[in-house]
Design brief:
Blueprint: H1 2-16, H2 47-77, H3 85-113, H4 122-134
Helix pairs in contact: 2-3, 3-4
Length: 135
């Protein structure tokens, strides 16, 4: 339990501060991690920008996997949660369903709208993913 708290504190600290190797902020400043501009050349990429690009590749698809594993283990190992199995599993399944909608909706919506414009609800799919990840 203690090791888990130490690891969580480390990751929270790492996510809330820019890398001191950037030279832009000292390690004591609590500045949000920012992405590098799209126009940055490979030799201009910062450490925080690289981490900002890698983290979503792990976290976004990892949350549905974790939700399914944790949810199924929760109701199987704890008898108090067994009566709530349906609600627990629906919320876990909602994470990967929303992620699949986020991935597939542009393929369906963009051609029907005549290109990427205001008629494409791509932003709503992102909000749906965030909402299901929070449940």
């Amino acid at each position: 339990m203690r090791l888990g708290r130490i690891i969580a504190a480390f990751f929270i600290r790492a996510c809330n501060c820019r890398s001191p190797s950037d030279g832009r902020y000292s390690s004591g400043d609590r500045q949000p991690v920012s992405a590098d501009p799209v126009t940055a050349k490979p030799d201009e990429l910062s450490t925080s920008g690289t981490l900002h690009a890698i983290a979503p590749m792990i976290g976004i698809p990892g949350i549905p996997v974790a939700a399914m594993l944790i949810s199924s283990t929760l109701w199987k190992t704890n008898p108090a949660w067994a009566p709530h199995r349906s609600a627990i599993m629906w919320s876990a399944h909602a994470t990967w369903i929303s992620l699949m909608l986020l991935a597939t909706y542009p393929m369906w919506g963009v051609p029907r709208a005549g290109g990427f414009n205001i008629d494409v609800w791509a932003g709503w799919m992102n909000r749906l993913v965030v909402a299901t990840y929070l449940t």
